TrEMBL record, chain A:
<feature type="domain" description="RecA family profile 1">
    <location>
        <begin position="10"/>
        <end position="201"/>
    </location>
</feature>
<dbReference type="GO" id="GO:0005524">
    <property type="term" value="F:ATP binding"/>
</dbReference>
<dbReference type="GO" id="GO:0000400">
    <property type="term" value="F:four-way junction DNA binding"/>
</dbReference>
<dbReference type="GO" id="GO:0005657">
    <property type="term" value="C:replication fork"/>
</dbReference>
<dbReference type="GO" id="GO:0000724">
    <property type="term" value="P:double-strand break repair via homologous recombination"/>
</dbReference>
<dbReference type="GO" id="GO:0005813">
    <property type="term" value="C:centrosome"/>
</dbReference>
<dbReference type="GO" id="GO:0033063">
    <property type="term" value="C:Rad51B-Rad51C-Rad51D-XRCC2 complex"/>
</dbReference>
<dbReference type="Pfam" id="PF08423">
    <property type="entry name" value="Rad51"/>
</dbReference>
<dbReference type="GO" id="GO:0140664">
    <property type="term" value="F:ATP-dependent DNA damage sensor activity"/>
</dbReference>
Automatic annotation (TrEMBL), chain B:
<dbReference type="GO" id="GO:0000400">
    <property type="term" value="F:four-way junction DNA binding"/>
</dbReference>
<dbReference type="Pfam" id="PF21794">
    <property type="entry name" value="RAD51D_N"/>
</dbReference>
<dbReference type="GO" id="GO:0140664">
    <property type="term" value="F:ATP-dependent DNA damage sensor activity"/>
</dbReference>
<keyword id="KW-0227">DNA damage</keyword>
<dbReference type="InterPro" id="IPR051988">
    <property type="entry name" value="HRR_RAD51_Paralog"/>
</dbReference>
<dbReference type="GO" id="GO:0003697">
    <property type="term" value="F:single-stranded DNA binding"/>
</dbReference>
<keyword id="KW-0547">Nucleotide-binding</keyword>
<dbReference type="Pfam" id="PF08423">
    <property type="entry name" value="Rad51"/>
</dbReference>
<dbReference type="InterPro" id="IPR013632">
    <property type="entry name" value="Rad51_C"/>
</dbReference>
Length: 311, 334
């Protein structure tokens, strides 16, 4: 294939490395390197999309406000991107950064616009469209050297459609996602971008009920980090791409809290989300782990303390 | 999957399609993913021509990236928040149903799911003067109940009829009919329904679980795929036409015994906002009460597990309670 000088330059010029995108999520010195894939895995309502917003904000915010100032592509296969929520998080971060400095609110609006213009959103409604869109994004990648992050929410959105369409043959069922994964692999090698993708759990976690019946187990989830429901289920080519796997979970809100709350506005304990990361970096063959917890507030994700252990 | 046909784009002629097929290139995806140089040799066509074809096909079938700034601008001008007509529900939902999103009501039998749907439909058609699509899959829809609700709003029969005309009802009892209906609505039916009066602002499916749950027993792949298709068309319709989608779901009990919305984990990601409706049982009272409680169990805007009580009679302040209700209404107005 022919390649113009500008394209070659965009391809080979070092894109921003996102190793420091969120140190609190990854093992020490184990952030995602150039061309690595991070999977956020968990059942509904465990803060996967919220974490994506957090990372997205970190990337598009200007350096002065604690951001990285890089371009981001958000591939929305679930139609889950809530722009209003994203803007409110950005707003919060900007005003927090502003209180330290000086400027006015009018300038903030302009900064917000410039942040949002660093974001590209693509909506896909089938896996073949996803594949074609990834092909198309290659031209976007060549034209925007500032583009360093690709977010996919979620990678398994078309899982059941593909399974059904593929008929009896397992290879055909997985064909499209495999092709997407292969293409993504090539884009990662050629353009050195970083990918974060969410993956929904497709099986109900039974760990909760089993621990309830067997009286011996005391802590509900810390011990059962990889239960049956957490097993990767997507096709092999995708599994091979993933170097970091973030398991998302939330601590169940105490039942009596919800019951006593009523209509009154009393202070309730906040829901705590936990994410445990397993990284297998390319340099060392060993796996490293880290777990951290956070609240979700109006201003987005707020990590709890510097400690890595959750009691 | 898009099969290659002649005339899809300039340069893609019958002979070339045949040659491509011989080289095992049958779909647009195949063509786009294949090595252009190799393929040009195999089909004895110039590399340049083939590359041009690839580019056009790609542009035809890709989803285009939109700048976040533009998307936000568009969203600000197009998003509407539709009040449900009930202040306590509105409070839970952060002032109402948002267009472009799916909101789910889950609850057991008699928890008031359908009544809330009726109330919302009446409120949108009468007060907001917008059209509503009501898809009834359980046979539970009764026009007389809607009329009853409207009668408490106005005594003017003409106004009542106008409001009723803005509610378009579809009665379907299986998932294929539902998909057909949703696809045809997305493919232009929504604009047609908008002709008489306001534009369609809400699509209500009561209930979505009634047509989907029978599928989940047999062949899992097929059932799941149909479920995701229903979800997909609802989501794209909500986004593209700026309508609020309101669906109802039943409840199941998990292995641990706690109540959870039905249709399993794959569905659980679909609605953006979810309310759990329950009866409020006061042990002493045995007469059926219209008091219900709603708990917010999923939301990206508000803290979850907020609970509020509301009265189903709110939408139809029936004769015996009308005076007290009216007083309450006046209080809230002033």
């Amino acid at each position: 294939m022919t390649e113009s000088g500008a394209q070659l330059f965009a391809r080979l010029e070092a894109r921003r490395c996102l190793k420091d995108i969120e140190p609190r999520l990854f093992p020490e010195d184990g952030g995602p390197n150039h061309g690595e894939v991070v999977e956020l895995y968990g059942p509904e309502g465990t803060g996967k999309t919220e974490l994506l917003y957090h990372l997205l904000c970190r990337c598009v915010l200007p350096v002065a406000s604690g951001g990285l100032e890089v371009d981001v592509v958000f591939v929305d296969t679930d139609y889950s991107l809530d722009m209003l929520r994203l803007v409110s998080i950005l707003d919060n971060r900007l005003s927090a950064a502003r209180s330290a400095g000086s400027p006015s609110a009018a300038a903030d609006e302009a900064v917000l616009r410039s942040c949002l213009s660093r974001l590209l959103v693509v909506h896909c409604s089938s896996s073949s469209q996803l594949l074609l869109t990834l092909h198309f994004l290659e031209t976007t990648l060549t034209s925007r050297p500032g583009l360093a992050l690709l977010l996919i929410d979620s990678i398994n959105a078309f899982y059941w459609l593909d399974r059904s369409e593929g008929g009896a043959s397992f290879a055909r069922q997985e064909e499209k996602l495999s092709k997407c994964a292969e293409l993504l692999g090539r884009l990662l090698r050629d353009y050195k971008i970083t990918v974060f993708a969410t993956c929904h759990a497709i099986r109900r976690s039974y760990s909760g009920s089993s621990s309830a019946s067997s009286s011996s187990s005391t802590s509900s989830f810390a011990s059962t980090s990889t239960t049956e429901s957490d097993k990767p289920f997507l096709c092999r080519p995708w599994q091979r791409l993933v170097t970091h796997r973030l398991l998302c979970s939330k601590q169940e809100a105490p039942k009596n809290m919800a019951a006593t709350a009523g209509g009154s506005k009393e202070q309730k304990t906040r829901q705590v989300f936990t994410v445990s990361t397993a990284s297998s970096s390319s340099s060392s063959k060993t796996k490293t782990f880290r777990s951290s917890s956070y609240y979700v507030t109006d201003g987005g994700v707020e990590f709890i303390g510097p400690n890595t252990k959750v009691s | 999957m898009v099969v290659l046909r002649e005339g899809m784009c300039p340069g893609l002629e019958e002979g070339l399609v045949r040659d491509l097929r011989a080289a095992d290139i049958k779909t647009v995806e195949d063509l786009v993913s294949s090595d252009m140089e190799e393929l040009a040799q195999k089909c004895s066509v110039s590399y340049k021509a083939l590359f041009a074809i690839r580019r056009v096909l790609l542009a035809q079938h890709t989803a285009f990236p939109v700048s976040g700034a533009d998307l936000y601008e568009e969203l600000l001008s197009s998003t509407a928040i539709l009040s449900t007509g009930n202040p306590s529900l509105d409070k839970l939902l952060d002032s109402g149903l948002y267009t472009g999103e799916i909101t789910e009501l889950s609850g057991g039998p008699g928890s008031g799911k359908s009544q809330v749907c009726f109330g919302v439909a009446v409120h949108i058609s009468f007060h907001l003067k917008q059209s509503v699509i009501f898809i009834d899959t359980t046979g539970g829809f009764t026009a007389s109940r809607l009329l009853q609700m409207l009668q408490t709003e106005t005594r003017n029969t003409e106004e009542q009829m106008e409001a009723l005309q803005r509610i378009h009802v579809f009665r379907l009892f299986d998932v294929y009919a539902l998909l057909d209906c949703l696809y045809s609505l997305r493919g232009g039916g929504l604009q047609q329904a908008s002709v008489g009066g306001g534009s369609v602002k809400a699509v209500i499916v009561d209930s979505v679980s009634a047509v989907i749950s029978p599928l989940l027993g047999g062949k899992p792949n097929e059932g799941m795929s149909l479920m995701i298709q229903v979800a997909g068309v609802l989501k794209t319709m909500a986004k593209d036409f700026n309508v609020a989608a309101l669906v109802t779901n039943y409840l199941t009990r998990s292995g641990g015994g706690e109540v959870q919305p039905g249709l399993g984990v794959s569905w659980s990601h679909i609605p953006r906002t979810r309310l759990l409706l329950e009866r409020v049982d006061k042990a002493a009272v045995f007469s059926p009460s219209s008091l219900r409680s709603a708990t917010l169990i999923k939301s990206s805007r508000q803290r979850c597990h907020i609970r509020a009580e509301f009265d189903l009679k709110w939408w139809s302040r029936s004769e015996d309670t009308s005076s007290s209700r009216k007083r309450k209404l006046e209080e809230t107005d002033s």
